[in-house]
Input
Amino acid sequence: MTSEETSPASRKELNAELKALLRRAYESGIDVEGGFECRNGIEHPDWDVIVTEVEKNDHSE
Output
């Protein structure tokens, strides 16, 4: 995140940022499916993120 970017203030904004990140990675040829460890040092919690491709439905954006 750069100094010009703002932090997400809601789950909806977080989802939008995650969607944009995954799209950019996919378009760059990165295999985004799988597990990712997010280690964040002492000040913040660590997370384990699992990304799986799902079947599109009629309501997909």
User: Anything to note?
Assistant: The two ends are 25 Å apart (CA to CA). The chain is about 30% helix and 15% strand. The CA atoms of residues 40 and 51 lie 19 Å apart.
